[in-house]
Amino acid sequence: MSHLRIFSDTDPDALLLARDEHAAIASELAHIGVRFERWQATQPLPANAGQEEVFAAYRADIDRLVAENGFRSVDVVSIAPDHPQREALRAKFLDEHTHAEDEVRFFVAGTGLFFLHVGDRVYELLCEQGDLIGVPDGATHWFDMGTEPDFTAIRFFTRPDGWVGHFTGSDIAQRFPRYEPGRSGT
Ligand SMILES: [Fe+2]
């Protein structure tokens, strides 16, 4: 189940707030400019659905988001637990960074754990099937797909080079828990 936990950025054991009801999560995230929506597929999607089938199942929401934000390209990415580059893919965005454009992802299947560092707080958001997250440009964050990554996501891009990570040099991500699916609370 999707959840949001908010911590002090100086103490990963200091849980300030926890939410697992979607509207409550969306409300908390809206305060920091993060978009969080739930989308419903308009047709059944097989586990091995191709990109065009995925687009067709979420066409109205995709078109709305593209019209609102001016995204130039949309694609679908899948990562399986036995992906040969899973360790490198996981490591790529495990430290705190920003992007020059919004990081917008819709989880068609599977899960992933986002951390947003805003002010003196860290927001830990578990995304699962049906969740859309929009991290605004410039927001400091990191992402953990876990040791056995397993998700399919729709990605939205404004510029071909927009999703380059600009790392802050902070080690804050290493002081917070990593993603361990099945761990109590996640
Ligand atoms: Fe990122």
Largest sheet: 5 strands, antiparallel
Q: Name the ligand types.
A: fe (ii) ion
List the helices and strands in order.
EEHEHHEHEEEEEEEEH
Report the mean per-residue pLDDT as an integer: 95
Radius of gyration: 16 Å
What is the helix content? 10-25%
Q: What characteristic shape results from the CA principal axes?
A: globular
Which range does the strand content fall in?
35-45%
Which regions have little confidence, pLDDT < 50, spanning 5+ residues? none
**Class computed from helices, strands and strand pairing:** alpha+beta
Widest sheet, order of strands: 2-1-8-7-10
Number of helices: 5
Q: What distance lies between the first and last C-alpha atoms, to the nearest angstrom?
A: 8 Å
Number of strands: 12
Give descriptors for this structure.
186 residues, alpha+beta, five-stranded antiparallel β-sheet, 37% strand, binds fe (ii) ion
Walk me through the structure.
This protein has 186 residues and is an alpha+beta fold. It contains 5 helices and 12 strands. It has helices at 22-30, 51-57, 59-69, 86-92, 172-175; strands spanning 3-8, 11-19, 35-38, 73-79, 97-98, 103-110, 112-118, 121-127, 131-135, 140-144, 151-157, 166-167. The strands form 3 sheets. It has a 5-stranded antiparallel β-sheet. Strands 3-9-6-11-4 form a 5-stranded antiparallel β-sheet. The chain has a two-stranded antiparallel sheet with strand order 5-12. β7 (112-118) and β8 form a beta hairpin. The longest helix is centred in the middle third of the chain and has 11 residues, at 59-69. It binds fe (ii) ion (FE2). Residues 93, 97, 99, 103, 141, 143, 165 line the site of fe (ii) ion (FE2).
